[in-house]
Amino acid sequence: MYVQGPEAFFDDIDNFNVNINGDELELYLAAPPDGHCGDPIAHWSALQAGGSQLARLALDILSIPGELHFFIIARVIYLI
After folding, report:
1. What's the predicted TM-score (pTM) here?
2. Nearest in space to 40 (alpha carbons), one of 20, 69, 79, 75
3. Any domain includes 46
4. Chain segment 4-17, per-residue pLDDT in tens
5. Is 69 domain-assigned?
6. 1 assigned to some structural domain
7. pLDDT in tens, 18-67
8. Domain residue limits at 46
9. What is the DSSP string of 25-79?
């Protein structure tokens, strides 16, 4: 009988394409700013095609009508 340590118990579980090595938002905020983004929708759409959950959130926020942007962003920041 082979006995595993507690750290090996979850090694074979699928992570559902989530990067467990770092928070995607923290990695984005730590990266240098990209000053060459002319179209934010195209930028975030390209990142979403690669499986980025942060890009999905950004596109959700960018698709909100203009009057609600301030309210939604303020709520998101308040909840963080």
Report:
1. 0.55
2. 69
3. yes
4. 666 666 666 666 66
5. yes
6. no
7. 656 668 888 888 888 877 778 888 988 998 988 888 999 999 988 877 66
8. 6-79
9. HHHHHHSPP-TT-S-HHHHHHHHHHTT-HHHHHHHHHHTS-HHHHHHHHHHHHHH
